[in-house]
Amino acid sequence: MSTIASSADVAEDSCLGEGSQIWHLAQVREGAVLGQNCNVGRGAYVGPGVKIGDNTKIQNYALVYEPAVLGHGVFIGPAVVLTNDTYPRAVNPDGTLKSAHDWTPVGVTIEDGASIGARAVCIAPLTIGRWATIAAGSVVTKDVPAFALVAGVPARRLAWVGKAGFPLTADGAFWVCPETGAKYVEESGSLKEAADNS
Q: Where are the alpha helices (DSSP H) in 5-82?
């Protein structure tokens, strides 16, 4: 069973997984699908048709615009914005007000385990790889590889991080998590878990 605060606005045709919680003043729009044990904080917005995996947290006042797709275990910090319009305008070239049919929405895809820090802005279309970390206040304008730590305006890779979120340290041919000891291998500008991770 999911929990919905009395002040939240949750569309009847949205789908909330078992154990999900929607807090005060949050809005979940038509056709949105949330997995199990999701948490949507106060004042957050989830757009029509957005897909969200299990165990994902969307913190207070975050804006997740359609057609975003979030994997399992994703963390969206307070006041994060996932955009959906490459060339935003309120009006058409002739001055008439744009309608919902006058543009094509594009989305942000966030893969399993990734974390987006407070007030970061992700400019669609882009993909944030699994277990990546976006530092607070960053503006992400291009795809982020798995396990990357990016920061800045525009965001650039500063380091690699492991599943625990800690920056990895170089150890011979491997990158190693100081918290868990897990090993990773860098290949062609991306990182993957090492085959020997015992």
A: none
Catalytic residues: 72
Residue 122: φ, ψ to 5°: -110, 115
Sign of CA dihedral 143, 40, 79, 49: positive
CA 130/CA 152 separation, integer angstroms = 20
Domain boundaries, the chain: 1-161, 167-198
Q: What is the pLDDT of residues 27-59, one digit of tens each?
A: 999 999 999 999 999 999 999 999 999 999 999
**Which one is the CATH code of 1-161: 3.40.50.1820, 3.90.1150.10, 2.160.10.10, 2.30.42.10?**
2.160.10.10
Q: Residue 49's Cα: distance from chain center in Å? A: 15
Distance of CA 16 to the CA centre of its chain: 18
**27-28 and 45-46 strand pairing:** parallel
How crowded is residue 26: how many other Cβ atoms within 10 Å of its Cβ? 25
Select from 105, 100, 140 the least CA-distant residue to 119: 140
